[in-house]
Amino acid sequence: MLAMNYRGPFRVRVDHKPYPELQHPNDAIVRVTRSCICGSDLHLYHGLVPDTRVGTTFGHEFIGIVEEIGPSVQNLKVGDHVLVPFNIACGSCPFCKQELYGNCHESNPEATAVGGIFGYSHTAGGYDGGQAEYVRVPYADVGPMVIPADLHPDDAVLLTDVVPTGYQAAEMAGIKPGDTVVVFGAGPVGIMAAKCAWLFGAGRVIVIDHLEYRLDFVRTYAQCEAYNFRSMNDPVLFLKKATDYFGADVCIDAVGSDAAGSALQTITGRKLMLQAGSATALHWAINSVKKGGIVSIVGVYGPTDNLIPIGNVVNKGITIRANQASVKRLLPKLIDHVRSGRLDPKAIITHRVPLEEVSDAYHIFSAKLDNCIKPILIPPSARV
Ligand SMILES: NC(=O)c1ccc[n+]([C@@H]2O[C@H](COP(=O)([O-])OP(=O)(O)OC[C@H]3O[C@@H](n4cnc5c(N)ncnc54)[C@H](O)[C@@H]3O)[C@@H](O)[C@H]2O)c1
Ligand SMILES: [Zn+2]
Ligand SMILES: [Zn+2]
């Protein structure tokens, strides 16, 4: 079958790989109909995530048709069109029982922090992902959900990660009616976080990025203010001025370890790798939230350490909340928001690329060319 194949930093290609096999009675094999490239894949592509092995297939955002099921699978049948959350979760460990599906204790033998994630290095379990024609889906009775007939497949694929992550960013931020919310990052996740902030009653939403085309998009899509940090001497001072010098009620980091904007962070985090990526957006979030405010982090920071201003966190009495999104927990609510028209996920898709051109798709998305916001990959069998 055709599959994306990681060959080292900034090098991916499409290759022929063996068709995946059932390895456990509760596995399913899914024929992919769409998969996305995510900002999280860029951390892998840029070589920032340890133990990203040559030969692995990325892709944690995908939907597809069930081709085969193991003998114990009860909730799926061959032919179902399913959306598959990016978290691989057993459904029965103490953390899954609390609906912390991103922190499953069983699905990732490599770590005790994050659970398993499709196509996200051996630090997240070493599973192959869905940027391929077929993918093995473990715990098939737990994660996959049959796509309701009235849900567009383009919306469904965005419900595997981006929409729940943006929503959870706003949820963790504990937004109270009238709050001023600052979102760092106008990528797919930041765009969704800004949109969802209104659902929690925000009074004002401000988005910060440095890509004008994304700022233009989010201004219209999420009806918010949007500013370019390159046009400011100091983004923290700018945000203080914009909030009566108190600071924002909540700040959301939807950037993570690939952040631009600070030479020191870029050199230590992304070039010399003395820390796990650049924490520029997180610094700005901590320093521009008000005293007693909340910083919600969904931007990914790879293991293990980053330099962050913990003294400011303590002295300002900031609450930090962070996690991988718990997709399965949020799906029923989010499908309702899509059905009602309050959320329109597919509007962020800018590029539809044949799987065979995966290498170009990564380059375009990584270099932010051609006004790219969200690319989806379509395997050949889904194009006929
Ligand atoms: N926690 C989760 O469950 C989860 C799920 C999906 C994605 N993520 C993470 O969310 C982050 C965003 O994902 P995405 O798909 O939107 O990625 P993306 O790369 O498309 O977007 C990131 C945006 O941040 C902007 N940016 C860079 N430096 C900045 C700075 N200092 N301040 C403000 N903006 C800055 C970039 O220009 C870009 O537009 C990534 O770190 C990704 O790994 C987390
Ligand atoms: Zn993702
Ligand atoms: Zn579990």
Walk me through what this model shows:
The protein has 384 residues and is α/β, with parallel strands linked by helices. It has 2 domains: 2-161 and 326-382, Quinone Oxidoreductase, Chain A, domain 1 (Alpha-Beta Complex); 163-322, Rossmann fold, CATH 3.40.50. It has helices at 39-45, 94-97, 153-158, 162-172, 188-199, 212-221, 235-242, 263-271, 280-288, 310-316, 327-340, 358-366, and strands at 2-8, 11-16, 28-36, 62-69, 81-84, 87-88, 116-117, 134-137, 145-146, 180-184, 204-209, 225-228, 248-253, 289-297, 319-322, 349-354, 374-378. The strands form 4 sheets. Strands 3, 4, 5, 8, 9, 16 and 17 form a 7-stranded mixed beta sheet that branches. A 6-stranded parallel beta sheet has the order 12-11-10-13-14-15, sandwiched between helices. Helix 4 packs across helix 11 and helix 7 packs parallel to helix 9 (280-288). The chain is globular, with a radius of gyration of 20 Å.
